[in-house]
User: What shape does this take?
Amino acid sequence: MPDRYEASKDELTDFYRQMLTIRRFEEKAGQLYGMGLIGGFCHLYIGQEAVVTGIQSAMSKADSVIGGYRVHGHMLACGIPAKAVMSELTGRAAGISKGKGGSMHMFSTEHKFYGGHGIVGAPVPLGAGLAFAHKYQEDGGVAVCYFGDGAANQGQVYEAFNMAELWKLPVLFIIENNQYAMGTSVNRASAEDQLYRRGESFRIEGLQVNGMDVCDVRGAADVALKWVREGNGPVLMELMTYRYRGHSMSDPAKYRSREEVQDVRTKRDPIEAAKQQLLEMGVSEDDLKAIEKDIRAEVNEAADFAEQTPEPELDELYTDVLVGNY
Ligand SMILES: Cc1ncc(C[n+]2csc(CCOP(=O)(O)OP(=O)(O)O)c2C)c(N)n1
Ligand SMILES: [Mg+2]
Assistant: This one.
């Protein structure tokens, strides 16, 4: 595994702030869902925050992001305002998809965030396509493509791997291995459970990384992105992580024990680990409390906005459905 990134106090404070923002946002989304304010599916990212925070911190402005349906955190990390994400969840006109997409169908070309896809595995060929566009347009960008351990068993993933390596596309494939697909553990479903090896027959370099430590993630992302940027083709990173909540809000998660979840929460929580490291670096408890307070205020403001801002007008029902003629 590549070296752990040596973050300065300021950098680590930024990572901490980003991870905590994602967690508080997701907790609030969970509450709004419980209150019946969010319709449809809602998949929370709680536990996995170090992955997107570490990766995003290593990216450049030209790079693009694509992911699945557990992507509220990815959007916040791309700089999309919490209000625009939360009000999409509540189906309001001010939402990033005008309130018509909901949790799984968010998109923002302005922030180079290309979805938000409900079809498991779909971000992989689409991500290869994004990478093709970066290469064709010579814009220097890398497509950063997130998918899950369950998605790694989809056929389309391997067709895309083949093309990506054959054409040396600038794409960073990231498997967020949170140990479970909808309710099936990796070991039950995968003949090769070392998922970073899944690119070997296409000669794609693989890296397995501790996804519960933001500096480990950042260190590995630097190495992987350098390789991709130098024109060597894709890298496949497997980030070992864990989700604390059920697959979606309606999952009672009976396929694992409470003790298992509790054990990860108490021993390997990425936010708690960053907090301890900051305290050791001399950041005060008061400074950390002030950060927490700011974040709570931002998230509460986003939630209040998302509850009060109007729903889309009826005539929006027929817009953005078909984009032009084919
Ligand atoms: C093609 C397809 N098959 C099945 C589903 C139903 N489904 C939704 S999420 C999921 C599990 C995916 O698990 P994983 O890739 O590990 O991602 P995670 O939910 O753990 O983030 C399944 C089977 C789907 N949305 N699309
Ligand atoms: Mg999974």
Residues 148-150, 178, 180-181 surround magnesium ion (ligand 2) (CB under 6 Å). DSSP finds eleven helices and five strands in the chain.
